[in-house]
Amino acid sequence: MDRTAGIVVIGNEILSGKVVDTNSPFLTRELRSLGVTVRRILTVPDELDEIAVAVAEFQERYDLVFTSGGVGPTHDDVTMEGVARGLNRKVIRHPAIEGRIREYFKEKANEARLKMAEVPEGAELIVDGRLGFPTIKCENIYILPGIPEILEQKFQAIRDRFAASPYFLRVIYTKDGEGTIAEHLNTTLVAFPELLLGSYPKIGDPEYAVKLTLESKDEAYVEQAMAHLLALLSRDSVVRTE
Amino acid sequence: MDRTAGIVVIGNEILSGKVVDTNSPFLTRELRSLGVTVRRILTVPDELDEIAVAVAEFQERYDLVFTSGGVGPTHDDVTMEGVARGLNRKVIRHPAIEGRIREYFKEKANEARLKMAEVPEGAELIVDGRLGFPTIKCENIYILPGIPEILEQKFQAIRDRFAASPYFLRVIYTKDGEGTIAEHLNTTLVAFPELLLGSYPKIGDPEYAVKLTLESKDEAYVEQAMAHLLALLSRDSVVRTE
Q1: Among residues of chain B, what percentage have pLDDT more than 90?
Q2: pLDDT digit string (tens) for B71-130?
Q3: Do B158 and B192 have their domain in common?
Q4: Can you give the pLDDT at residue A131?
Q5: What percent of chain A has pLDDT over 90?
Q6: Contact residues for B26 (Cβ-Cβ < 8 A; gap 6+)
Q7: In chain B, which residue's Cα lies nearest the Cα of A29?
Q8: Predicted confidence band at A203 (pLDDT cuts at 50, 70, 90)?
């Protein structure tokens, strides 16, 4: 089974260079290992319309959408409202989450903390006993927090539901540069048009000049393409394979 | 002067989790320090239509657009063609770049290497004596390579042309969590509606629970807002300021 995904990162702190986003690299690696194809990663500001437009487009285009950030108790946490707007839904205060917040904070359950009970109407709560707070799902959108430790915990708790058919990856490292091997890559793609073939030059590495990645969801296909390309490359050029 | 920017990162290697994008964090930090407001960062695959759509939209919406990646000699380097398509231009082989490639590679100037002379018709070459290869500019789009070392060199060579009026930043670290201080943030924003106010919780830090960032292009405004917010926060809660 093939599955596509889009990731929407929400956060002025990333767009202003204060924080480096580690959530989308984490999600990307995890999704790839599950066989899911990430098609786009978009970082937008903490603004309702920006979030709504992004989420509405991604939700139509991709099988799975993940948002990161903007779900806390402060003024700049507008992801729930943005997702709701993108799906033409209202924001409601979810009774189950509200109950949990009131129980935990007792008389300290102020408006800010109760804001964390707000979700798009019709949202599904994914409850995991190991985590304090449910993960909110709305249509095909999984709404994750911006704090990396919590995002990673939450994703790990739900990752199995995203499994698709896996990618098979082979790698060739060459001493020859891209200008020398480009024609062999082109020839290989003529013979194996469905191959996912990446060519990544590395500067100043004493071991190799280019890393070639060959991928497919068909293991035999990638092995055949690998043999085809290795036969074209000069023996001296191939440093090693994986 | 205010200036907005959008960054388009082009690369299957990033979407498949093989490489972590360091180019957009670099550009974002640099642009912020120049006073430029980055509004969106979008990562797309090495596909013509994806690049064309992204570039066409960003070029309309933002004052400056930067692309990263997809400008080498191999089959997956389709940024020039993608940008050309997004701007409804043809791709041409630029005589000045072609001449430089033929001069450098002599009889080794094959089709793959000459592909690097292709640019959207009407593109401007920004030549810098310290760098071997010109930077390509097309409308308000600056086309940068994916290799971080080269992207950074190229950006440094042209960065002065992007200077806008600077942001002024103050920071407060608090021991109280977001749920406790949220009302003070809201009150401050009522008094200073133009303030850029960020609230960033940190988990497991013994020193502080929340980092607050106050920003504006008006230095007096951010100082007044800072004083206003500090007066609201409990004295015990403020760990330090910057």
Answers
A1: 85
A2: 988 998 999 999 999 999 999 999 999 998 899 889 988 888 999 999 999 999 998 766
A3: no
A4: 65
A5: 85
A6: B148, B151, B152, B155
A7: B17
A8: confident
What pLDDT is stored for residue A192 in this prediction?
96
- Measure CB to CB from residue B73 to each of A39, A178, A213 and give the nearest one: A178
Q: Which residue of A has its CA nearest to B112?
A: A179
SS3 sequence of B46-78: CCHHHHHHHHHHHHHHCCEEEEECCCCCCCCCC
Unique residue bearing structure tokens 């707070």: A133
Interface test with B, best of A8, A18, A114, A173 (most B CBs within 10 A): A18
Q: Note whether A147 contacts B203, CB cutoff 8 Å.
A: yes
| Shared domain check, B130 and B36 | yes
User: For position B152, which CATH number holds?
Assistant: 3.40.980.10
CB B232 within 8 A of CB B197: no
Structure tokens given for B77: 């380097």
- Helix (H) / strand (E) element for A111: namely helix A111-114
Per the CB < 8 Å rule, is B183 touching A17? no
Cβ <8 Å between B40 and A40? no
What's the mean pLDDT when you consider all of chain B?
A: 94
Of the residues A119, A136, A162, the one at which a domain ends: A162
Partner-chain contact B186 A75, CB within 8 Å: yes
* Domain carrying residue A62: 3-162
Q: Which of B106, B134, B162 is the last residue of a domain?
A: B162
pTM: 0.95
Q: Mark yes or no for CB contact A75/B199 under 8 Å.
A: yes
Specify whether B130 is located in the same domain as B179.
Answer: no
ipTM: 0.94
Structural domain tally of chain A?
2
